[in-house]
Every structure is written in C-alpha cells, then in structure tokens.
Amino acid sequence: MQTPDSRDAATRKWHLPTEAMDELVRLLRDDGYTVIAPTVVDDVIMLRPVTAAQQIARGLRDQQEPGRYRLEKGDPDLYFEHVVGPDSPKRYFFPPEQKLVSLRIEGDRFVTEGGPAPPKLAFIGVRPCEVAAIRIQDRVFGLDPAPGSFPCEADAYYCEARRQALLVAVNCTRPGGACFCGSWDTGPAVSDGYDLAMTELKGGFVVSAGSDRGADLVERLPARAPSPAELELETLKLNVAREHMGRHLETDGLKELLDASVDHPVWDDVADRCLACTNCTMVCPTCFCSTVSDSNDLATGEVTRTRMWESCFTDEFSYAGGESVRSSIRAKYRQWMRHKLDTWWDQFDTSGCVGCGRCITWCPVGIDLTEESAKIRANPPAAAESGVAR
Ligand code: SF4
Ligand code: SF4
User: Fold this and answer.
1) Contact 355/249 with Cβ under 8 angstroms?
2) Bridge-partner residues for 207, per DSSP?
C-alpha cells in the first residue's frame, strides 16, 4: 500500500538486469517471504511458490480467446510475454478451501483449534488488473471498506495475509486476446497498491517503487539509473499495449443501462448457451462467495468446519426459504453479470470487474460479458423490453 512518505520513492525509477530476477527471489526468501510467481502447471500459467528464478515461467506467450487458452513458445529472454492464467492472488488471500475451526473432546473438556495462520507472501509478476482486483477484495473483506458501503464482516485471515504481502507487479506490454483492462483503466500499467512495478524490456526491467518497502528492496539489488532511451521505450511499449487490448467494454453509463435491463432478451439468449458450470466465478479474481461445511472424523471424533469457494451459479448457493431463489440459468447469469458490472457499485462503491478476461477465456462455451453488454447497448431496454414477459 502506498504511504505518504513513499511518494519520493514512487517518482524514482531504476533499471534492473534480467539476471537479477534470481537475486530478487533470494532476497525475498531471506526476508522470510514465501515467493509466489507465474509457473507452468498442466500447460497453463499458474501462480505457485518458487524457490529460484528458473522456476518462473519464461519464454512463453499465451493465446486467449473465448473458450480457448494455449501456451506457445515466445522470446526465450523474456519472462512476462504471457498474461494471466486461470488463478490469481485471490487463491492465497482467500483460499479455495480453508479450515476455520475444529473441535474435539479431550478428557472432560472441549478443545477448539483455529485455522492456520496466513504465510508471509511476496508475489512476483502480479498484473495491474490483479492488483486492482486485490484492492477490490480489500473492500469486500473489510481491510479497506469504502465509506458508506456495506462490507462483509472483516475477514481476519484475509486482512492479515494482505497486510504482510509484498507485491512486485509487472506492467503488461502484450495484452491477451480476452483482456480489457484498458476499459476500466486498471491496466496495462499499475497505478497504485504495489510495492515494486516492473516493465520488461529486452535485457532487463524498468522498475518503479510504490512503497518504501519496495524502494528498500530495489536498493539491495544490482539496479542502476535507467537511460532516457529505456524510459522512452517503456512509455512506448505501454502506449502500444493500451492500443492493443483484446477486447473493449463500454463502461460509460453501463450501471444505469444494466439497472434498466432486468428483462432484456439477452438473458434468454445467454441461458440457451450457459452451462451453469461455475467456471466464470471460480476464475474471477474478485468473486468472493463461499460456503461452510462441517465434517466429522469418526475415528477421532474431531469435528471440522471448512470454508470453500461457492458460486452464484449453483442451486444450493441461492437456496433460501425452501427453494432456490435463482433456479433458472437466465436468472443465474443475469445475477452474476449484473453483480460484476452494476450492483457491485451499490455494495462496494467500485466495479466488480477489472477486465482480466478470465471469465471469457475459461467459459467452456465462450460467453463473453463484453459482447453481451454490447448487445444490450445496441438494443437498449425501452425497445428491447416491449413484448417481453416478466
Ligand atoms: S468479471 Fe471476468 S473480466 Fe471481470 S474481473 Fe471477473 S473474470 Fe475478470
Ligand atoms: S457463463 Fe460460461 S463459465 Fe459461466 S457458468 Fe455459464 S458456461 Fe460456465
């Protein structure tokens, strides 16, 4: 998080050679961090713990389109030609499955045991849209509630994991086919909420610090002042990236448009294709729904309460008063898309979408919320709703 006394550091830039990546990992580990970085798992970019720079995905670029993801060879010298994979830092701050508490009987008393303490995490290669998503979840989980909004109860694990975490962001110079961070201004360059931000050039990185912690880190690395040509190249690459977003979402007046489109026929059209598979919610870096499950170990008698990710696409999640309140796929998709782009503003005073494109790439039938929004805009409610049954 940026602090007032970090402003001087934020105006400074450095050049870090590519080979310094190994030292960056080592320094972070020496400082007690578990280092998380993009790696390749099952032919997909996944954020996983690394102990050395050679474990970080390198020389790879991704092809992403609705319902399609492929990794292919890229420039072997570059670390970050690929963009985001299906998972995000969310998995580490808000784990997919997490023990909350266990209870057992010892002698004549109950013994309770809480869940694990969060590790001290340092992320390398977090994208600007992911930093934006983290800041949205800071609101959701009560670390940084918006004034006048309705945050969920503060989540102790999340807040502690976030307070400890160090973010080394990487600006995007090659947006993916499903990316539209430019539409939300959440990329391709990170603007806030990071410790270090790196823009990769051939042979090294232009680095800026967003916090004193980040400045301290870079001062311990073999960094030098960047040349005017390197700074100019950084600006050029980011400008080119801005102009080459895979997709675009028109955000002006989008909330009002969707507020007025509850009965739009686009929801029926989506319902014919959507499988209610939950993929879009599982990969979204801001989705935060969860459920709890209690299990009983018959051998030891220990009872454990576990929190797991849930999805607004399941019948169980919306089960209330004896039935699911959103039983049709039409209602489920509408709830999800309107929450992301519309009602999230009412709840958290921000969009619930950062334009990462994951829900588009990982939808097995290629449903694309930018396309569905454009269809509504092209056929706005007054015309669209005539003759549509409620
Ligand atoms: S709604 Fe889709 S594009 Fe937006 S943040 Fe979630 S996964 Fe990314
Ligand atoms: S929109 Fe796509 S990813 Fe989401 S539930 Fe429907 S089929 Fe699955």
Assistant:
1) yes
2) 14, 198
Nearest ligand for residue 180 CA: 1
Measured by CA distance, the residue closest to atom 8 of ligand 1 is 356
305, 294 Cβ separation under 8 angstroms: yes
pLDDT tens for 316-365 read: 898 888 888 899 999 999 999 999 999 999 999 999 999 999 999 999 99
Q: What is the mean pLDDT for each group of 10 consecutive residues in the chain (390 residues)?
A: 43 93 98 98 98 98 98 97 97 98 93 95 98 96 78 86 98 97 97 97 97 96 97 98 97 97 97 98 97 94 96 91 89 98 94 98 98 97 49
Pocket, ligand 2, Cβ cutoff 6 A: 274-280, 313, 333, 363-365, 367
Ligand 1: does its nearest atom lie under 6 Å from the Cβ of 359? yes
Among all bound ligands, the one having the nearest atom to the CA of 334 is 2
User: Using CA atoms, how far apart are residues 173 and 81, in angstroms rounded to an integer?
Assistant: 8
Look up residue 59 and give its two tokens.
């020389």
Contact indicator for 207, 13 with CB cutoff of 8 Å: yes
For the question of whether the overall pTM of this predicted structure is more than 0.90, the answer is yes
Q: How many residues make up the chain in this entry?
A: 390
Nearest protein Cα to ligand 2, atom 4? 280
Nearest bound ligand to the CA of residue 358 = 1
Are 102 and 307 within 8 A, CB to CB? Answer: no
Mutating to test ligand 1, I would choose from 341, 359, 367 the residue with most ligand atoms within 8 A of its C-beta, which is 359
Query: What is the per-residue DSSP string for 12-74?
Result: -EEEEETTHHHHHHHHHHHTTPEEEEEEEETTEEEEEEESSGGGS--SEEEEEETTEEEEEE-
- Residue whose CA is closest, atom 6 of ligand 1? 284
Q: Is 356 in the pocket of ligand 1 (CB under 6 A)?
A: yes
